[in-house]
What does this fold into?
Amino acid sequence: MSIPAELVMQLRQRTGAGVLDCRKALEEAQGELERAEIILRERGLAKAASRAGRLAQDGIVDQYSHADGRLGVMVEVNCETDFVARTPEFRHFAHEIALQVAANAPRWLSSAEVPAQVLERERELARQQAIGAGKPENVVEQIVAGRLEKFLDDHCLLRQAYVRDEEKRVSEIVQQMILTTGENVTIRRFQRWEVGEALG
It folds into this structure.
């Protein structure tokens, strides 16, 4: 099947994948753009997963200040080489992560970092709210599970909806950067300060 160059470029703009990868995906999807995008995403996730174990010890620290200095953020984003760390794309990515932290105030990087006592407290609070609202016993646990997932989505950076495109998660933006750079990319740590916030 002959794939028009315009369709290849359209898929490339939507996904950031290489021209040959876009052409192959479109051929496999018989010219259907949405199916080709899904094929590329699945392949990309597999590639990103294969790079996840590689050591990422280079990178940059980015900072962001907002509201006339009343809000500040610092993030450390790592990659494998100094070459990638110095690229405009990587620096832009780090700054986007700083903006995300400023806008959505995550408390943890991933759900694995959430202390067990915090999860238990949230679980018990959700259970009490469901029972207090008169929900049947057989649906209380489903409600608790749903509220716990929502809590993690709100407070874990990698699970948050990306501020520039709420259809995507921050973890997907990280995976896209892995595909773009060809290196393992990780968010190592972040800190957010706001004037007047409670300490501790």
